[in-house]
Structure formats: C-alpha cells, structure tokens
Amino acid sequence: MPARKRRLMAMAVVAAAAAAMTATAATAQKKYDPGASDTEIKIGNIMPYSGPASSYAVIGKTEAAYFDKINAEGGINGRKIKFISYDDAYSPPKAIEQARKLVESDEVLLIFQPLGTPSNAAIQKYMNARKVPQLFVASGATKWGDPKNFPWTMGWQPNYQSEGRIYARYILDHFPNGKIVVFWQNDDAGKDQVKGLRDGLGDKAAMIIADKSYEVSDPSIDSQIVALHDSGADIFFSWAAPKGSAQAIRKVGELGWKPKFFLANTATSVAAVLKPAGLEFAKDIISTAYLKDPTDPAWKDDPGVKTWQTFMDKYYPDGDKLNANNVYGYVLAQNMAQVLKQCGDDLTRENVMKQAANLKDFSTDMMLPGIKANTSPSDFFPIEQMQLMQFDGQAWRLFGDVINGEVGH
C-alpha cells in the first residue's frame, strides 16, 4: 500500500475516532431521567381545583399560562414544558393518589408547587422514597426546609415561623402590653404559625391569653370568634385559609370588635378574601408581603407590574388582575424556569434538586425590592424576608423596612 494511502487511512481512522469521541461526549453531556428528553420536560402539579381551598386554584392556572408563554417563546434550552396538573380537592388521600399517578403513570421529572400543608405532608415520604423532587411546595410549613431528612422536598415562600417572628417583633415594639388571641387552622400550618409567634415573643409569650383552632372543613367558625372576643383581648391573629379568614374578618366586624387585627400572608387576596368578608371590616388589618400587589397604587406605573398585566392579558385573559394569587403563580413559575435553565442538558432529578439548592440572589420583577431567593445544600428556605403592610379599605399599603424572619436551619 502506498505510503500516502496509508497516511490517509490512518488520518481517516483518527478522524473517525475523534468523531466517535465527540459524539460520546455530546451524549455524555445530555443526561435524562423520566420526564425529560431532547424536546420536552414533563412537570407535574397538584392543586385544589375543588373543595374548601379551591380559591387557590388560580395559582395552578397562572402557572399553566406561564409555561404556555415559555413554550410560545421556544421553551427552556430548546425544550417545551408539558405541565400536567391534577385536582386533589385539598384532600390528603386524593393527593397521594395524584402524586402516584404523576410519578408512576405520567412519569414526570418532578412535582412542582403541590398546594397545601396537609396534602404535601401526605406525599412527602412517598416523594422522598421515590427520589422525585417535591419542589417549591405551595405552603409555608417549616417542615419543607429539612434537607437532612427530606432531601427531595423544598418550600419556597417565607415559612410560617418566619412570618410569626416578624409579627412578634412588630408587636413587642409597638404594643408591648397587648393581650393577644389567636385563631388558627388545626394542621401543621396553623401550629407552625403559632410557634413562630410564641418564639418571637420569647419571655413575653404570656401576652397570648387565648387561642381557638378550626378545621378547614368547618362550615362556620362563629363560636370560636365569639369566645376569643369574650376574652378581652385587644390583638387578634387569624391564621386560616382564605375561606376561614374571610369568615373571621366578617364575624369580628359584625361583633363591633376593634382589635389590632393581624392576617396570615396566605389570606391577603383582596378578591378572594377581603371583598367576600366586606372591605369595611377589613380596613386597618396588618399583614406581610414579599410580592408586589397589583392593587397597590404605589405600583401603578411599575414596569414589572405592567409586564405582568400584559402576560395576564395574553395568556390568562380570564384571570382576575386584583387577585394576588395570580402574581404568586407567575413568580413561582419564573423561579421554576430559572432552575431548569440552570440544569442545562443535565435533566436528572438529582440535578434539579442540586440547582434548586443553588439559587443566588434570584429575584423577579414582581418580587418586592430587596426580597431575594437564596438557597444552599443546607438551606431549603428560599425566601425569608417580608415587609409589613396595612389595608386602607381599598388596597394594601407597605410600611417599614424589609424584615428578616430567619429561622435557625
């Protein structure tokens, strides 16, 4: 064989080997678990589209609309999102059924934003046993930030203990001699909130002179509110889902009782809670915020709010622009998109959790200035700052500085 031909053959072999190595490297760079491919990322979701907490259903609808927007703009790293959302009616047994369906039949990459403390508590062990991310849980219970025992579960919003501590700090500064009563939801969410308030009050925890719980399924909560009114307290806390909070605001108002009223952040929607309760009864209530409220005139000309309004008009025209839950769903979907962007071509469940635990000062244009999401392998609480706000009869008005309610990890 002529030397030139041998040389050419050798070069061809080298080139073929190099091409094979490059192909292998390219294949090696792309890693997929069930629910991910070159063209698609399947995301599961569980929402109470029916049942006692159905006012939260709009969160799932906004998230679906945001993923439609992402897909219309070409997807994430060239992959379209397939968002599969099921109703659990705020029922833990139904949540377990839907989680199994999403993981075992639909084979989703992860379950994003399943809503409610009882539902998430019911699926947490299953999700961790299956090593499927239960990511950015829509509940502020502190148990979603326990990477040592539950490395596949992560919350997102400020946890209820942080919120309780923030209120406690404000009360100690402004009403150190107040008498506090607490109306709370009989589940981990309510217990967490009361614990945060007690811990925050420290050696002044005896300021809490009475508390009454209720079940989310209770048709009426009047007897609890009357008993708390009769205790002679001048500070009232309502830690309840939207329906229970609306009933509490109305009953306090009907009794002509005028305590300093604090309302859980999860029940501050003007459309879903305050209007049904009666705006006249809601005046002067204090709560916390970490997202921009589109009803607040302060944001009238804000570019971020305008971008959100344009999104609502185009992708969720039936959505109520007065409902803060539609802002929450939008921001959460943006944060989910950020995690998937960070994953690149390594769309394994392990890498999804790794990237979720590697958020650095993440913020969007609908988060309040100064509020940022930060996580690490040992810190599964993305947002721990909030700002106080007061309802003026028409809209929420922010006051004071951004306060950190960090709970020891």
Summary, kept brief:
It contains 13 helices and 14 strands.
Low-pLDDT segments, ≥5 res: 22-27
Instruction: Tell me what the CATH architecture of the largest domain is.
Output: 3-Layer(aba) Sandwich
Order of helices and strands: HEEHEHEHEEHEHEHEHEHHEHHEHEE
The level of helicity is: 40-55%
Adjacency order of strands in the biggest sheet? 3-2-4-5-6
Q: Write the CATH fold name of the largest domain.
A: Rossmann fold
Instruction: Please tally the β strands and state the result.
Output: 14
What is the CATH class name of the largest domain? Alpha Beta
Separation, N- and C-terminal Cα atoms: 73 Å
Count the DSSP helices.
Answer: 13
The whole-angstrom Rg is: 24 Å
The general outline is elongated
Let me know the largest β-sheet: 5 strands, parallel
What does this structure look like?
The chain is an alpha/beta fold and 409 residues long. Helices cover 42% and strands 17% of the residues. The chain has 13 helices and 14 strands. Belongs to the leucine-binding protein family. This is ABC-type branched-chain amino acid transport system, substrate-binding protein.
